[in-house]
Each structure stands twice: as C-alpha cells, then as structure tokens.
Design brief:
This protein is α+β, with helices and mostly antiparallel strands and 168 residues long. It is built from four helices and seven strands.
C-alpha cells in the first residue's frame, strides 16, 4: 500500500519571480554549491521557462532515524527529480519523483504554483510507498516529512536569495 499526502509551501515572492527562480540554473547551483553530500543535474528538455532538476543526496548517519537505520541495506541515498513546466498565466505545474538507495522507497506527485495575496504558493500532492516488511508503513510518514522539509529548505533559500539581490 501507499500513503497519500498533501501540503502547501507559501512564498512571499510573486509567482512570476518564483517560477523564474525555480527554472533558472543559477539558483539551483547556488543552492547546492556548499553541499558536500548532494549533486544536481539540470536540463531544459521542454525549452525556456521549464526545467528538470535531478538531485542526489547521501544522508548523514547521525540524521537517520533509528527505525530507518535498523532496516537499511546500505548507505541511505535519496534521489529526486522535479520537472517544472512553463508559467501559464499565473499558474505553473510540475511533477516530482523520488526514491532511495539503502531502503526501497518510491514517492511521486504533482506541484501547482499559483499567486496568492501575499506572494505565491506551491501545492504539493503525492504518494509515498516504503517497501519494507512490517515497518514500511511506519517509515512512510518520515519520507513525507523529508519531502516537506526539503521544500521548506528550498523556500527559505529562494526567499533569502531574492532578499540578497534586493539589498545588494
């Protein structure tokens, strides 16, 4: 079985600016510039205003929950691919797929970015499945939380990135 989830990530920047940032290589290179455990591969297979971001990250051992450590087959590595389409009016849609090495997981879903009175937001809807006997269902909420934390980290980085450009 799989677990369904949804959440919203709110931004203080207008949707046009957010979309431009999320589909610009420079933002992603800056985001991962100091990471010692992550890599990115960026491409624009559908042309200008779109992007495919493939991220790989190795989890530091001390940050892995005990329940997960007990069922790991090897080093825990996360793989995530985001695809963003062009902005259509004030809406952009995207998809994500994620998996991991060391524990058999699958995650996929959709993004929808749109304007709000305060700026913009991304609605995230997806499913996660952890294929581990007995404890898989207990790990699924942890995988969902990891996706939420990753997107919150990206939100903080992008808002700081915009603030630095406005003040600099």
């Amino acid at each position: 079985m799989s677990r369904k989830f949804s959440f919203t990530v709110s931004y203080t920047v207008p949707v046009e600016d957010l979309h431009r940032a999320l589909t610009t290589d420079d933002v992603w290179r800056a985001r991962f510039a100091e990471s010692e455990t992550a890599t990115i591969d960026l491409s624009h297979p559908d042309g200008a205003g779109t992007i495919r971001i493939h991220m790989t990250e190795k989890a530091p051992g001390e940050k892995i929950p005990g329940l997960v450590r007990r069922v790991l087959k090897s080093e825990l590595t996360f793989f995530r691919t985001d695809n963003w389409r062009a902005l259509d009016g004030d809406v952009a849609k995207g998809t994500f797929e994620a998996s991991s090495g060391g524990i058999d997981t699958e995650m996929s879903g959709t993004y929808e970015m749109h304007s709000t009175a305060e700026g913009s937001e991304i609605e995230v809807v997806g499913t996660v499945r952890v294929k581990v006997p007995v404890v898989g269902r207990a790990i699924e909420p942890l995988a969902e939380q990891l996706q939420h934390r990753a997107l919150d980290g990206e939100r903080r980085f992008i808002e700081e990135w915009f603030a630095a450009r406005q003040n600099g």
